[in-house]
Amino acid sequence: MMLLIHQRMAELYTISRTRPLTPAELTEQQQCLHANAAYCWEMARLNAEGLLAAQTGDTGWQQEIHAQLAEVRAGGKAGRRRN
Fold first, then answer.
1. How many CA atoms lie within 13 A of 32 on its CB side?
2. Can you list the pairs that 2-6 forms with residues at least 24 positions away whose Cβ atoms lie under 8 Å?
3. pLDDT band at 3, cuts 50/70/90?
4. DSSP conformation class of 73
5. Phi-psi region of 5 (alpha: psi -120 to 50; beta: other; left: phi over 0)
6. Closest CA to 46 of 22, 25, 70
7. What's the pLDDT tens digit per position in 27-71?
8. Are residues 46 and 68 in contact, defined by beta-carbon separation less than 8 angstroms?
9. N or C, which terminus of the chain has less Cβ within 10 Å?
């Protein structure tokens, strides 16, 4: 699933192929890159935890991680983790 930040990064990239980005667009591009990095690291963390949950047979934890993955895919970040 593509987040809005991914769409905007693509737009900014396309614009940059025809003209230099304005200072405001450069700032926006940096914000999108930051949000994308946070998204990627969160997905990597959850995937690693999901693998660990599967390997240990912890189905409750697996279900919780699966729900968090769905939240991240839909909105870019998961709700509060349960401890």
1. 18
2. 3/35, 3/39, 3/75, 3/76, 5/32, 5/35, 5/36, 5/39, 5/76, 6/32, 6/36
3. confident
4. H
5. alpha
6. 70
7. 999 999 999 999 999 999 999 999 999 999 999 999 999 999 999
8. yes
9. C
